[in-house]
Amino acid sequence: MKTPSLYLIILSGLLLYIAWPASSLMPLIFIAWIPLLMVADRNMTASRFFGSTFLTTLIWNTGTTWWMWNSTDVGTIAAIMFNSMLMTFPWWGYFHLKKKGKRIGYISLISFWMCFEYIHHNWQLSWPWLSLGNVFAMYPDSIQWYEFTGVQGGTLWVLIGNVFLYETILSFQQKVNVKKNVLISITILIIPVMLSIFIKPKIEENTAKQNIVIVQPNVDPYGKFNAGSTSEQINSLLQLTEQNIDSNTALVLWPETAMSDAEWQDNVLYNGYYQPVFAFSKKHPAISLVSGIETYKNYGYEKQTATARTTGSGTYYDAFNAAVHITNGLPIAFYNKSKLVPGVESLPTFLNFMAPVFEQFGGTTGGYGRSESATAFSTPQNPYSSAPIICYESVYGEYVGEYVKQGANILTIMTNDGWWGNTPGHRQHLHYAKLRAIETRKWVARSANTGISAVIDPLGEIKTSQPWNQKTAIKYPVPVVSGETFYVQWGDYLYKIASAISLLLILWKFTDRFRKK
Questions:
Q1: Would residue 448 be called left, alpha or beta, if left means φ above 0 and alpha means ψ between -120 and 50 degrees?
Q2: 342 φ, ψ to 5°?
Q3: I need a surface site. Which of 10, 127, 183, 441 has the fewest CB within 10 A?
């Protein structure tokens, strides 16, 4: 008896959902797409298959990212619906091209999906949270080869695994090439894991003399910007810092927007709320402080950026979700968050007409300004050259690699995951940081306002952490690791190859149609 298509569509979406972090059922990802592949082989119209795929991806998106509702309800619905729709297009392309042959169909599915993920990493509505390669974040021992491929390699593994397991199921039904397909499928599943075990580097005994102090202030994100609370927050941060530093502390890390009194960047040094911070720096000249901060930058009467807004006097300025580097006796350095959250921190230019709507549901009409490229915070006397990664930026493997190219020898993530409450969202975000550690082979120091703050080694293992919803700090002797991995040097090369193949397939399809006409 044939299983109804609706059951298969729902099953595929549920398998994708229950395989995702922070679930421990990750291996199910290798069969998650099989029910949808079965549906694709049934006799139906392209429009019906498009709707079927949309239901599958809608279940997946809703199950894994529903927690965004805690920060914006209407925005969450729009994001889930839109992302689900985008995910249907690679499958829609596969549905059309598989008519040219099964092999062409599978190549198109893999290429189109990887092309989609690459676009979703780089366009104005970027949302790579559900890139398939992220699914292995809780199992770093199986993906040590990410230092060569990054997340894109994991995506390729998932897609190929599903395709060959599906072919194995068909071979059992048709009683053809059963042993061959079983052997190929087992090889595809096992070889990457064995390779990961084989290439896993050994971490030398930790002999670092200097340490890093990571502060988790546990401030309500919905109340931290209220007038009158800034002094209390700064005092709490400094108190936690003073209680944990010692003579070997070289770097202190505070979370995103820890310095929450928005100020002009050329006036931060004179801001009254921040004088205790500079007094702390003067008292401890050997310590560098890296913190999130809200800032502005004035451009005068020239509009220097597309995001620049106007003041009442007619001058232009940008607002930034930024990071600041403070070391006594040296100029203050800033980095402005570049990878902004669509709809909340940035608005695509083609949606400018909807600015009032985005503002009403938690976004910003003008959008934040941004830095054009990654940078590293360093001083001559400090062993740590830190990558000031702000929140959402830690989801972008290739971009995080740019910090390393700029000289960063440690990844410092500043985030404020409290917007979502105690939901899977902040745990997913923590696990994704493990991927960045493996891709770059760098230690990660992660300061989260409400948790989970952690130290992660270059193998993707959490060495120490502090739980959600606690006011606390971490002190850890983090070693310095220099050098660039293959992935840092070459970035998302697999995505680019897949995108080129996708373009050739599309051109071939249109050329073939034109020739027939």
A1: beta
A2: -60, 135
A3: 183
